Amino acid sequence: MSEKRVEPSSAPVQQHMGLKASRAISNTAIYVLLVIISVIWLIPFVCIVLQSFRVESTWQVGYVIPQKWGLDNYRNLLQTDFTRWYLNTFIIALITAVLQTVIVLCMSYTLSRFRFKMRGPLMRFMLILGMFPGMLTMIILYRVLKDLGMTQENAVPGLILVYIASSGMGYYVSKGFFDTIPKSLDEAARVDGATRLQVLYKIILPLSKPIVIYTILTAFMGPWGDFVFARYISFGASAGKNVAVGLYDWLSKDQINKSYTMFCAGGVLVALPVTILFMCLQRYYVEGVTGGAVKG
Amino acid sequence: MANLTDLEYLRLNRWNRFIYRFSHFFTEKLPNGLKNFFVGTGRRIAGAAKKVGAECVDIWSTFVNGDWKTKLSFLVMGFGNLARGQILRGILFLLFEIVFIFYMVTTGAYWLSMLPSLGLQGPSKEYDPIYDTEITIPHDNSFKILLYGVLTIFFIIAFIYTWRVNVRQNKLAEQILKSGKKLRSGREDLRSMVDDQFHKTLLALPLTGIIIFTVLPIVFMILVAFTNYDGAHNGYSNALFSWVGWKNFDTMLNWSNNSGTQSYSATFGEVLTWTLIWAFFATFTNYFLGMFVAMAINKKGIKLKKVWRTILVLTIAIPQFISLLYVSKMFAKDGILNGFLLSMGWISQAIDFWGDTANNGLLARIMVIVINIWIGIPYLMLIVTGILMNIPADLYESARIDGANAWQQYTKITLPYMLFITGPYLLTSFTGNMNNFNVIYLLTGGAPTNAAASSAAGAVGFTDLLITWLFKITTGAGNYYYLASVVGILVFVVVAVISLIVYNVLPSIKNEEDFQ
Amino acid sequence: MASVKLTDVKKVYDNNVTAVHDFNLEIHDKEFVVFVGPSGCGKSTTLRMIAGLEDISGGTVEIDGVVVNDLQPKDRDIAMVFQNYALYPHMTVYDNIAFSLRLKHMPEDEIYERVTGAAEILGITQYLTRKPRALSGGQRQRVAIGRAMVRNSKVFLMDEPLSNLDAKLRNQMRAEIILLRKKLDTTFVYVTHDQTEAMTLGDRIVIMRDGYIEQVGTPTEVFEQPHNTFVAGFIGAPMMNMVPAQLKREGRQITVSLLGAEIPVTGDKLEELLAKDVHSGEILLGVRPEHMMLVHEAGPDTIAATLEVNEMMGSELHMHVIAPDETRLIVRVPTVNLTTEQRERLVYGATVHLTFEPKVMHFFDKEKGTNLIYG
């Protein structure tokens, strides 16, 4: 509602013509605004793509359009551990997506559908647990994973374990979705002779496609961007890094001049598959995000 | 202020109404809320105590009234089940008891006995004739003692609970048999796992994960706050750590400081203040600007709605570390923006966005909030769009017939509706922003450096939140884990207090079922 | 085809609210029993306890002589129709109806026979391949009934199946349920808040309020011999007029005086009152609107009232009148009995004289509300 504030007394004065004209003006203003917003939002990504093709220098420069174009940065990427990081991240993301989805669905379905004695206390307990900064647990998880041999070079299984282990606490969005499926469907199926398990996979899951896809999508995207845990658990071992940790180091003070454009190229390669996947499944993501916020 | 009746209240003007409600909140609602909370907590504790008492009585009466099978089950778990033909249950109980006893005898007892001291014998230096040097021989390991000590306590609790279940099952089995009915067979037990007991099956895996990877570490880290665990006392190879009581909280919260540098508490206060300011602005700038953008896109007559939306949503897809790191470098002293401004001749000297310490790093602080808007608006746009579509159109129609203009429609209908629906979201968003590690760490790493605070607590920057400070304490020189966990506990306290207050005020949170 | 027996059935929710108090009822084989009452009276809860969808807090539910308290719904051999139909949105009508049979691993041929058979009866054959969202409310209701029908289960439970339909369709479906019942010839338990449905469908009606049974009886019994003021008010529309009155007994003579009228009780009612040995005192007198009569002239046994609102229903006229002491009464007058002249006279503010016969009077205790004769 960007229409100018109109005094109540003047409202009746506005005739049909006036209404039309004021709408046209406000719409034009909105178009201008939207164009500006789009530019602001896209500029960094345009820059990053352009700079990934710059070959005349590898450090930060004060201009955007390369003077010399080429694929050198991408070629150089292959000489580094980037492929290893990429593979690490991909494996982590894939496995996490599957397992985390299973766990989240178990949790949210149960809390949505079953009324057992410990349900209320359990939900309160998880709410309180969620108020502790997750980072606090990092130190001990590192030590435990180290004892299990799942850190540094072998960080991949360790990270998977960390990502999925507590994922049950992120049940809110999908519980909100399950809550919208009428309970009488469960009841009808149970009267019809279905066990609770059959209710889940014959009735509820076929109706939950959007939320299943949303959960898979977010679970898959999470590991691509995770930085803190990945850095802590891989702890300097290049073979155990994910893309975020690896690329972060390229922007450190002593490396930035050598690898700035390579960072851009790496960034493009990381963003590409995730973005394409995201765009294809956008509809479900939007559904999940909006539903989640509305239902708390 | 005196309580007014509804009719008296209605005669107040707008300002007085606000004053009345405001003072009412602090004189009536808040104290009542707190009172209810504490009374409720007290009642819950009393209830729990009563329950434990009742359980004990029940256990005793089960023993006294039970037959010999039941009585023997008090010692040999699952015996009653086995004797009454419930082989599967019996074997599971028995197995659990055997594992428990084996664990306690072999290792559990050791961890438990060491827990009060966290290790008796520290590492010692010994001469190694082969290499002709002094080498360190580690002995007890405080870290493991604390960890496995806690784990053992968890295990004991689990055992007591299982034992209680075992006793209750005997009682139930006796009752069922007495009434002439049959007990469930193992096959029926298995079947009930996918039917009436299905929730237990479903929860088993997620809860195990949460207990081991969240509850256990949190309990551990809370305990660490009462020790002197740090880089110099790593509990194993250089020195053991031990219990120190409330000393660390004293260090963190005591204003007086002997060493002449800024005290921890002052630093904590500074960082906390900024954290709250940041969380407030990060939440509400995003909220209102996101709402504005969403409404602009959804306005009647605007074409290409999908295109605008997709452009914004696109930025969600790109992993945050790429966009944040890149934007951070764009604004660096030698970054694109400065380069551009310099080459245009608009400025003569590069602006140091991340290094300017003037006014407590005000420039950097504003920059992170602004860049966070860039990050956050797409999400908000999506959320708001979803809710806007759900506002019944007849509300607007009737408002227009009543003579409301666009602005009035916004303030009287859209905004109240939004605030009601998104109340819980705003709360989680606020606390989420308090702990928004990624944005701060990837953008500024906490910079610019807060020299005064750093003198006391290691590297602290003006844009550091409590959570990034915690990270720096942990990973920085000295590895003051105990301080980090004190900070972590305080973060929890702050978040919990804010949530508690908001929960008691927000209408939309109170009843979960309202939304179903 | 089974009997259902509820003994001391109780439902207490976690927040200690008791929804159903000691419910005792025996439903005979092939009987059609209707639970009726205002919302929140515990009728649906009771039905759901029979179905196994709610835990039973106390007492026992038996189906065909077997206690089913601890059985899952699927093991109770019941069929149920839900208020909002509860059709599985992702399945076609055919699959919806076949769902329970498939769970029983019935051969596909037999499933086909049964589903098409049921569809034939319900007239939904042409929709079998459609998804529920492509159907109208009435069609969905038929599918829901079909789904319950094919199972040949012991008991047929219906939870307000018609309340989501519009008035016209509701009447039509009500008739169809009566027909269906004849075809299926099984035990029915039907929940509704609509007394018309209860009266037209039920062999016996269970009237409930606040978790208690107020009365159990055939439609005629609950209509003619309501046990208390609640039942009297709930059954019949418009609601029964309930007026404070004086009961005077002198030997074997009883008169009732109310609103300025004095009406002697005669006939069966007099005998029944005498048999109960009633005494003089304050009572509540109930008279149904359709039993009130308009008379031309005032007399000792008439009530003078002022006409406030006239509702013309077509075949009859509902007159809302104000009697002395601001007492509001409703009178139902068949329009055929009224001359044009009379009708024109019945306008706002007109004075009318009302009376009624002793045999239509209901006598209630003023405090407890119980029927002095039947309560």
Describe the structure.
The complex is a heterotrimer of chains A (296), B (516) and C (375). Chain A is mainly α and 296 residues long. Chain A is 71% helix and 0% strand. Chain A folds into two domains: 8-73, no CATH class; 77-295, MetI-like (MetI-like fold). Residues 1-15 of chain A have low confidence and may be disordered. Chain B is mostly helical. Chain B contains 21 helices and two strands. In chain B, a hairpin with a 4-residue loop joins strand 1 (124-128) and strand 2. Mean pLDDT of chain B is 84; it is low at 508-516. Chain C is of the alpha+beta class and 375 residues long. Chain C folds into two domains: 4-233, Rossmann fold (3-Layer(aba) Sandwich), CATH 3.40.50.300; 240-365, Nucleic acid-binding proteins (OB fold (Dihydrolipoamide Acetyltransferase, E2P)). Helices cover 27% and strands 33% of the residues of chain C. Chain C contains ten helices and 20 strands. In chain C, the strands form four sheets. In chain C, strands 6-7-8-3-9-10 form a six-stranded mixed sheet, sandwiched between helices. In chain C, strands 13-12-11-14-20 form a five-stranded antiparallel sheet. In chain C, strands 15-19-16-17-18 form a five-stranded antiparallel sheet, with no helix packed on it. In chain C, a hairpin with a 2-residue loop joins strand 12 (253-258) and strand 13 (261-264). Chain C is globular. The model of chain C has no long low-confidence stretch (mean pLDDT 89). Chain A binds chain C through residues 182, 184-185, 187-195, 198, 202-203, 206-207, and chain C through 51-53, 72-74, 78-80, 82-84, 86-90, 99-100, 103-104, 147, 151, 157.
Give the proportion of residues in helices of chain C.
25-40%
Largest interface: A-B, 101 and 108 residues
Globally, the shape of chain C reads globular
Task: Fill in the CATH topology of the largest domain in chain C.
Answer: Rossmann fold
Query: What's the CATH C level of the largest domain in chain C?
Result: Alpha Beta
Report how far the terminal alpha carbons of chain A are from each other.
26 Å
Largest sheet of chain C: 6 strands, mixed
Q: H/E element string of chain A? A: HHHHHHHHHHHHHH
Provide the CATH superfamily of the largest domain in chain A: MetI-like
Unreliable sequence segments of chain C? none
Number of helices of chain A: 14
Rg measurement of chain A, Å? 25 Å
User: Number of folding domains of chain A?
Assistant: 2
